Amino acid sequence: MSVPQKLLIGAIGFAAILSLSAALANKASYTWFFLSIATLAGLSAFFRFSKKQKIQNTPFKPQWRAILKEEVPFYKELSTADKAIFEERVKTFFSDVDITGVGFEIDDTCRLLVAASAIVPFWELPFWNYGDLHEVLVYPDAFDHDYQIDKDHHILGMVGSGRNMDHVMILSKKALYMGFENLTNKSHVGFHEFAHLLDKSDGSIDGVPRSFLPDELVNPWTKLVHREMKKIRNQESDINPYGATNESEFFAVVSEYFQKRPDLMKRKHPDLYKMLSLIYHREHNT
């Protein structure tokens, strides 16, 4: 949304507040208050629709295609028809979600890697809208709980909650790039944080994505999670130890594993692989 558009909506919002104040003293002013609110909602929807239409009608840039081929193995292996679908989903993501660099000017590669982080895991879930995500903030490196960047900090990604952060995700640029560059490990901060959003779809981040798991499988999934977490704590598993932190982190960690190394998970953790295939509606061909 442009600055003039934001100013216009802000002015209407201010007028609505004044109308409400007047309404408290004079019931007849309620009409003006509700008219202001309706106008504000209508303009906001119009601007969102206009922005989405503008992006959707923009041809996919050749340089974007080159970046995806170079940086995103999943895209490179798609058929020509599926590449076109992937590109449309990139444009849709760009139209729905703002991607902002914090402390640096974001470039096309970074924006495309954020979009790919949202598209690859949910390739078979095209109806999902990323948990009503509004913005992804990209930090140059790791940060702390006060959103401060330092070499000693260790947070690589975070799904915001409460007030203005409720529809916001934060990613470390360094970790984001590493997730796509290192094809042999089981880590990917983008897949991890979007897994948290999938988990959050039922209203809580608790490691049980009920919106994507049949009711009759919730109990078996919970038992499987606890069994695998116990193996991690006993150092009897190749799953990232961070997965033993709690059930929600376990789900995010094994989602990374599932997306990055499906063949390995299928061999070493067939029960987990089967469950995650159901959740993500995908059967890897390995």
Task: Kindly summarize this structure in a few lines.
The protein is mainly alpha-helical. It has twelve helices and four strands; from the N terminus they run αααααβαβββαααααα.
Top keywords for this entry?
286 residues; mainly alpha; globular
Set down the secondary structure blueprint.
Blueprint: H1 3-25, H2 30-56, H3 62-71, H4 73-76, H5 80-96, E1 98-101, H6 108-119, E2 135-139, E3 157-159, E4 168-172, H7 173-181, H8 189-200, H9 215-233, H10 247-260, H11 262-268, H12 270-279
Helix pairs in contact: 1-2, 2-5, 3-6, 5-6, 8-10, 10-11, 11-12
Strands ordered across the widest β-sheet? 1-2-4-3
Largest sheet: 4 strands, mixed
Measure the end-to-end span. Answer: 44 Å
Report the helical percentage.
55-70%
Total count of helical runs of at least 4 residues: 12
Overall average pLDDT? 85
Low-confidence stretches: none
Q: How many β-strand runs?
A: 4
Query: How large is the radius of gyration?
Result: 22 Å
- Secondary-structure element series: HHHHHEHEEEHHHHHH
Q: What amount of the residues lies in strands? A: 5-15%
Structural class: mainly alpha
Shape: globular
